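Quick one: structure tokens for this chain, please?
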Amino acid sequence: MRGERTSDYDYELPPALIAQEPLPDRAASRLMVVHRTDERIEHCRFGDIIDLIPPGDLLVLNTTRVLKARLLGKRASGAPAEILLLKPVDGDTWEAMVSPGGKLRPGRRVEIASDLSVDILTLTDRRTRLVRLITPLSQLDAIERHGHVPLPPYITRADTPADASRYQTVYAREGGSVAAPTAGLHFSEELLDRLCRRGVRRADVVLHVGAGTFKPVEVDDPASHVMHEESYFVPPTTAAAVADAKKSGKQVWAVGTTSVRALESASDDTGVVRATASAADTRLFIRPPYRFRAVDRMLTNFHLPRSTLLMLVAAFAGYDLTMRAYREAVSRGYRFFSYGDAMVIL
């Protein structure tokens, strides 16, 4: 069956279609509408989403906030070094990726600023580092003051002050991600207000996006891929809202693959979404032939070849329809990846 091998998820993408900058207007991007029932593909603008979501349906948003997790500094020799903070471990200790890895062994220090330095503590089983932030400031204040927006590697420019707001959803609240939940970047406050006035309900989840989201599947059998772990939280109000939508015959719309993974991680075999008492961890790898239990509609961006995110989309829309949609997006010049255009799967 096609879609069982990692190589099935390759596609040709001209580099010119990888969006390097956000559009001036968040809601001005293009929107591909994919119909699963009759396999139609339509082409709209993102603002048309207002006409696609009926009153009473439930829109689920991931309210994670991207940290300025990229710290640039110097080693004792004066040579440059980079620390990418992945997640807090305990107090002032973080898990991080470092560069150059061969030079930043345990015991080394990187000077970021006069009031922030980073000590390399240990090497982890995942080849990341445990590091300690040395600062008189609070951890988050130091990161916000001296860190850089961790733009994905396919954006080949340095971050700018504008990225601090544009690589962030307008509803971001809980700091913890090293990448944005990019489907949500298209929503403006005005568009969310219009959806609310239309009668579309809203619920929130949190899933902190890790750097593993950009990691390609490097084995040809996806079942052998070790999924990266991410922290998520589903509050009781959201679990109740999903249950009410299901009972009322309304649809649950997940904004982004991160919202999908949070809801599906929290759902049982009958489709009941259970609230998490506190943050939980998930390694859920959604790929064909996964049976979705909580999510009825999905809004997403266009994803990297051979990625777990593309496999998730194929599980939802069907492999053949997904790959046809991607070929059509390339032929029509859609903008790809984080700052690119969007797709909604009905």
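Helices lie at 49-52, 139-146, 163-166, 189-198, 236-247, 257-266, 308-317, 319-331.
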